[in-house]
User: Fold this.
Amino acid sequence: MHGAEQLEAWAAAVEASAALLPRLADCSAAWRQPGEGRGGQPVNSAGFLAENIVVRLVNNMSTDAYAWARGAHSVAAETAAALAGQPTPPHGSPAWQLWRAHSATCRMIHWAAQPGTLERLPAALDVHGWGQLGNGLHLQLFGIQVLLAPESRGVVLPKEYSRGFFGAVCAAHMAACQALEAAAAAGRVPPPLDGAAGPLALSLVFDSHFVGAMGVALRGCPQLADPACLELLRRAAACAAGPKNGSQRHEGVVTLLSRVARYCGVAPLPRLAASLAAGGLLEDLLEDAAALERAGRMDAVRQATWDSFNAQRAIAEGANDVVEASGRAAYSEQTAQLLSRLERVVCEMVKVQMSISVARGAPPLGFPEPPSSLAQLAPMVRQLQQPATRVAEVLLEYWQLPEQAKAAQLEVAQAAACRSCAYLRCSNAALQGGPAAGEGMGSKRCSACRAARYCSEQCSRADWRLGRHKQACAALAAQRQAGVGGSGSGGHAS
Assistant:
């Protein structure tokens, strides 16, 4: 790939290919060319053309685009400057082009995940095809991220990004990841003809890029960290790491969780860290670190121990933020009971923190500062593991309370409103015209809030039935009236 011009051509090709896939599926189902193909199966020209779109175009060109974005430092600086105070990147800019390709790929995935699609394109949609499609999507997200923050490790993106186009990209990405997982669970991700099956086949979809991309999405839009997303991340990480007693398991867990920690910044997000702890993955990490220590893999042990420590610290910070905020707001009886439980388990964790600090001769205030040596850090992490897990379990319950979930849903809806179709599961593969609100062909506003746009009444109704827009529509309307003025009536695209 050479320059932004090539990126524009590639994004246009991805968008055009997405529109072509349904037509190829129709041809594949209706017309087959005799001959011998892969594994002795009849050649299906339309099906293999679709396979090349998925593998050659989406995956390979996404790899080139990501490599170009990583080296385009001046473009990254221009992108950050152009987005200052703006919800979306300038039309035609590199970030806009990558967003365009990412949106088209998301629509491909949702279209392909629909019941009945597999039977029409079996060659393109075996597990290798799904894995390549997902990998291309993840690389597109990574490319957008490096344009926003070239030095991704430890860089905190401005909060407005989570409500603007990057939040929209992350929300759409998470929905696509959920579609991939749902298709696998429903048996719509079959093993390839080379015989890979079971956990091996699934790991071609739920690989380290899948886990790392979910980490980017949660960092870019923390409000996405609902129980379903966090559980998906936990399952994907466990699957990608391999069987519990497999020879590669120890290295796998350490590598994956280190990748998540890196993409989420120096310390994992509190919600992500709490999910990993409550789901048992941090406990697995410590067990695997012990096994790696016996094998003499001290670099991996050091990484695992630091990742565990950072996750525990993120859990403590998240709990402190919740407790401090509770003193400034009115809340329900259910919330009061949960906050009381949280305070009790936080006190238990604080006692352990204080005992660690006293034993080290340090002031018993706040979370213990990490020692410089691994020999001192490892026992500290093991001491904190159980109380941190108990705090994590209560935190997750708190974040699932209706009033907490409602605030997160509104921010996700604000981000989705930046899209040409606010329905995050849009499967309109033929949609063209651009990824931003008002750019897509046939884009119509919700008649109630006048903030969200949809590519069709079908998507508008689907988003309403799903409940995401229904729960945020009135709040979006109020925000629009306060900031822009005007209102509508009804509740469907018009």
